[in-house]
Write a structure and sequence with these properties.
There is one protein chain. By secondary structure, this protein is an alpha/beta fold. Helix content is about 40%, strand content about 15%. A 5-stranded mixed sheet has the order 2-1-3-4-5. α4 (about 135) links the parallel β4 and β5.
Length: about 190
Amino acid sequence: MQKTADAQKSMYEDADMFFMKKAVEEARKALDRKEFPVGCVLVSQGRIISSGSRQGTARGGKNETGHAEMIALRRMEEEYPDTDKSGVSLYCTMEPCLMCYGAALISGIGRIVYAYEDAMGGGTSCDLSRLPPLYRDSPIAVRPGILRQESLALFQAFFKDPENDYWKDSLLAHYTLEQKCVQFSG
């Protein structure tokens, strides 16, 4: 019985690493466009059904609705409206904010896996029992810290770039730049 549980855990860990790497690729695309480096992929039955990367922060932009998770959720609804959302995992390079976490809850997403904690606006530690039924009656599993260092490196690169003004001098910027980061190649 224990061998089966260990094999299943290993399978989840391998899948989480694989799909988080895809979310990191989306985040790199955003960073290459001078956007805040958040990437997201939605996975159902072992395959990516939707993806998105942050929009609206380059060149001084302050669009707060162009979050990677919102883009990926919208695309999933357009392309796969009949998907059983309880079997969908959302992989994101940064902990979802309250807006994105709420959208995932209302959508019925079954699982969130994220890389880097949002010290300023992360929503996954919300006490759902204190919220209205629309949110608290939506069970969702959360797994933090997958490929945290790779995501941290992207956020540090963003905040170190003098051309980027988005959240410059914020709690998140200071927290991120104070973190020890192991540099990765590739």
